[in-house]
Design brief:
transferase, DNA-directed RNA polymerase subunit Rpo6, 2 helices, DNA binding
Length: 60
């Protein structure tokens, strides 16, 4: 996922979904002192380790 370009809407959806996963007890994929799921998800996004992909429709 590193280097892939996401729209601002895709980034918001990915980070939000990942923050919810973390809040619900999913394992954190990075070492961090933070306990805020949103901060953790943002850091995971920055590092490119979020295990979520985006499937786009082809443009017509």
């Amino acid at each position: 996922m590193k280097g892939e370009k996401y729209t601002r809407f895709e980034r918001a959806r990915i980070v939000g979904a990942r923050a919810l996963q973390i809040f619900m007890g999913a394992p954190v994929l990075i070492r961090t002192d933070s306990i805020d799921p949103l901060e953790i998800a943002l850091e995971e996004m920055r590092l490119g380790v979020i295990p979520i992909t985006v499937k786009r429709d082809r443009k017509r």
